[in-house]
Design brief:
mainly alpha, 2 domains, 8 helices, 2 strands, about 0% strand
Amino acid sequence: MIFRQNWLDVRFYLRYRMEVQQDSPETVDRIRAHLRHLLEWANGTVLPASTVITPTLPGYLAEKHLSPSSIKKGLEACRQFFTFARDHWPKRYHRIHLSWIAMLQPPRGLRPESHLQVHQFYALADMMKIAGVSTETLRQERAKVAACMLFLSGMRADAFASLPAYCVELKDRQILQLPELGAHTQLGQLGALPSDEKLPGI
């Protein structure tokens, strides 16, 4: 059971991120998903008393078998929330010390530095082979062109998939990767701020 005041605090923080920090709706949705774990972890305990909850938040997230990346980003979102809460509601959150917030880190075995990441890349010779493959259907042709475009441009897959046709200027050999034209770039697109009635729940 989620404690109502906890839900209200998180909801207020999300509005702050949207309206004051001017984070994109996509960013706020990601923060909302991370803080949902925080609310479920706290359960019926008020968030200002989080220091007494067992297991700890990092341990709780590890038990949910989330990916190391999700745990890292989730704890980062929680640290930002508690820092905000200390500043905004100092009387209620006076028991949340900065040293405790700083300890909201992934378990040592799940930290990125504990794993050796081996990245794999396509070489130019590989892409030349892909470009030379004959295709039988329009879907295959589109897949081949997309692979070549992503390799040559370094564009993110989401940005490529959302790129409108009028953003591609063949005459000038130019691609306009602009959020205001509809491309879903990494920084996202700032939309209209929702009213209280339209703000999605936690």
